Amino acid sequence: MTNTIPSPAGNDGFLVAALYHFVSVPRFAELRGPLQALCEENGVRGTLLLAHEGINGTIAGPDAGVQAVLSFLRAQPEFSGLEHKESRAGEMPFLRMKVRLKKEIVTMGVEDIDPNRSVGTYVAPKDWNALISDPDTIVIDTRNDYETAIGIFKGAVDPNTKTFREFPDWVRENTGLHNKPKIAMYCTGGIRCEKATAFMKAEGFDEVYHLKGGILKYLEEVPPEESLWEGACFVFDERVSVLHGLEEGEHKLCRACRHPLTAEEITSPLYEAGVSCPHCYSERSEEDRMRFRQRQKQMDLAKKRGERHLGK
Q1: 152, 164, 129, 142: which is closest to 233 by C-alpha?
Q2: pLDDT at 3 over 50
Q3: SS3 assignment, position 291
Q4: Of residues 39, 187, 233, 277, which has the active-site annotation?
Q5: Nearest 5°: phi and psi at 228?
Q6: Does the active-site annotation cover 233?
Q7: pTM over cut 0.85
């Protein structure tokens, strides 16, 4: 299946809006249809997750289209206090628009964790360096291993989790986390830390902090010369990674395993565009690679026609 990429107005590319809001939304299923239709009518793509506990997602499109969607959401009583973070992309970073109904807007899999009831203390980006430089603070990256592989805060503990569902067990198994009085946590945009800090509070940790707005807000506001961030920040769209000032990074995505790749990894003999990379080559069969080659061929043909191939 192919779909022509719409051209953005002006020369500034597409507006990207990352958002989430924890709030009780008993009628969340009713919002799916109108929201999907509004996004499609305005040339907006991305993914929005709706659940009883709120909304989460990232969308991109023409400025006016994205603003129309944000205005619609804030017109709903439950989302009147919705905040979002903006960046820009030179090309449309999403293939399609998906509004999905979920049990959780970020899946931890632990019952009765409600950020509206208990959550850690928010720390503004400008105050983050002082907190994580404090010797009484343990800094924890709540993201997954393929994200931390390309960037992390200096001195942070990396749980090396494959999914966020593994995080609670990791905390319970690491009793050394109680050795210092302060726990500072961060993630890409802030949403995982809402649940992670709520979970930590429930586990008996008293001084729990999290970076308000996540890594994205830090990279937007903190100058590179003052930064304690090392590397790039993985993002869940076609940009793959962003740097300070939210400029697009140089990482590419392996279409076979979705792992971000450095320039060095792309030169590996195990890398083949759309087929394999050093992270997944040994996990795939030659039959898998033949199938991926056929998919890549269709994508290349679609690109030559000025279209985007949407099939997997």
Answers
A1: 152
A2: no
A3: helix
A4: 187
A5: -110, 10
A6: no
A7: no
